[in-house]
Structures are given as C-alpha cells and as structure tokens.
Amino acid sequence: MRLRVRVVLVEPEHEGNIGLVARSMKNFGFNDLWLINPKVNLGSEAKALASKAQDLLSNIKVAERLEEALEDCDYIVATTATVGRNPSNLNRAHVTLREFGEKISGLNTKVAVLFGRESRGLTNDEISRCDLVVHIPTDPAYKTLNMAAAASITLYEISVAGKTHRKFEYASGEMRQRLLEVFEELSREVGLPPHRIRLAKKALRNVISRGPSSRREVSLILGTIRRATDKLKTRRT
Question: What contacts 24+ positions apart, CB below 8 Å, involve 102-105?
Fold first, then answer.
C-alpha cells in the first residue's frame, strides 16, 4: 500500500480549471477527484484542457457537502494563499509545501488535499476541519495562485514525497479524533471554560498534525489522558 491522494475542489467556478487540475493529476499519477457543490458544469472547455485526462473527468465524484469527500480520509490538508500573521490565529498556522512533502514522505495513508474557490479560497470553517494548512510561498506583490497552478505544484511535491519509502505506522484520523475527545473531557474535568477548551483542542490538533504522529505515540498519550481523567473523577466521588 502507498500514499493515496484525493484532490477536493471546493465550489470550483471555472470549468477550465477543473480540466487543468485533472490533467495535472494524470501527469503525477493521481486519479481520485472530487468536486464539492460546483458552480459550473463540465463542458467542452474542461475536456479540451484536460487533454488525455478525460477519463478522470468521466469519473469525477460530485458531492454537496465537504464531509462526504473527507469521511474515509486519514489526513486532511487545506491549501491557502492567506496565512495567519498573528501566531494566535491557530486556524491559519501553516507549513510550506516543501515541509508538507517531507512530513508525508513514505506514509501509507489516504490524504485529502483541499483547493478553495477561485474567487475567495477556503473559509475559516473549512480550514478548521483540516489537520494541516499548506502555503505555497509566492511574491508578496501578487500572492494568489490560480487553482490549477497551485494544484500542479502541490501534486508534484506529493508525487516526489510518495516515492520516498520508510516504515511508519501512522495514527488514523479516527484515532487522532479520539485523542481530541478525551483531551476535551480532561479539560472539562479540570474546569477550563468552553472558549479555552476550543483553543486548546485546536492547538493540540495542530501539534499532532505537524508530525505526523505514529499509532504508538497517540496510543500512549490517549492512555495517559484517560488515566488522568479517571483519577480526577474518582477523587470527586
């Protein structure tokens, strides 16, 4: 089994970009393309720009809700041109594309990579659902890349990373979600207010997503937090 990549275009607005993304996917050996609530139909322009990747267009999966495309993915990545200038903006904490490639090199897991609307990118809510935010550094005079250009650069880096082989048992998305849940339970037990719990959970999610985290690491942390929570509950009874 090798790294599996799902490309997710959120509310794409130009059919030509969809065709170009399909072509880039074909170039680098990927074939799992999803459109979320597309604002345009696929026509002759998309087919022409896809060139020999029209088979990908024929097999595109379309969904109304983002969750449908993400439910069987272990690692979810947002791409954005807008990064947080303030370190306290946890939603926009990011890594460069090269750093992202290094993190996923050799992993045997399914990764979803999200590309936002041509006009305004991904929303903060959509980004908050992701494990990692990736930023492609560009000239400050014109920072925003076209969706198809961003996809080509990103897929190239992923392709290179996927050819690096190492043995690594990655913690699944379900396992990492369970860690966040028990962490939230512990936070409530020690009396943190709701807004602090939300921030702390986001911070923890950022930390465990930068790794990536192994099953062994997450399992040890899970066990420790569960034991601490049980001790607190016992003392209260």
Answer: 102/161, 103/132, 103/210, 103/211, 103/212, 104/3, 104/75, 104/158, 104/161, 104/162, 104/212, 105/161, 105/162, 105/164, 105/166
Q: CB of 47 within 8 A of CB of 55? A: no
Q: Is the pLDDT of residue 218 over 50?
A: yes
Helix, strand or coil for residue 206?
Answer: helix
**Domain boundaries 4-162, CATH class:** alpha beta
**What's the pTM value of the predicted model, to 2 decimals?**
0.73
How far apart, in whole angstroms, are the C-alpha atoms of residue 237 and residue 219?
27
Domain ranges of the chain: 4-162, 173-236
What is the predicted pLDDT for the residue at 173?
76
CA 134 to chain centre: 8
**Three-state secondary-structure class, residue 162:** helix
The size of the chain, in residues, is 237
- Confidence class for position 234, pLDDT limits 50, 70, 90: confident
pLDDT given for residue 58 in this prediction = 94
Residue with more model confidence, 168 or 160: 160
CA-angle at 76, arms to 65 and 3, nearest 5°: 120
User: Closest Cα partner for 214 from 95, 127, 108, 132?
Assistant: 108
